[in-house]
Amino acid sequence: MLKKDGIVLDVHEKPNIITWLTLGFQHLFAMFGSTICFILAFWNYRLKRLENFN
Fold it and tell me: Could you tell me if 8 and 2 are in contact, meaning their C-beta atoms sit under 8 angstroms apart?
């Protein structure tokens, strides 16, 4: 695979531990945040629909 400044990794290559941990935490926060935001938004939508129903 063509590397440009060492940013692109091939399928069988592993990043160094600092890059690996940084990307891991970024993924953890992104997935946790999106999951919580979706639940809160859906919950808010349901509460508004129930208020309008009564």
Answer: yes
For residue 51 the two structure tokens come to 């208020």
> Residue 46 — very low, low, confident or very high, per pLDDT cuts 50/70/90?
confident
Whether 14 contacts 20, CB under 8 Å: yes
pLDDT tens, 26-36?
A: 999 999 888 88
Please say whether the beta carbons of 1 and 10 come within 8 A.
Answer: yes
pLDDT of residue 25 exceeding 90, the answer is: yes
Distance CA 41, CA 49 (A): 12
Our measurement of the distance from residue 36's CA atom to the centroid of its chain's CA atoms, rounded to an integer in Å, reads: 11
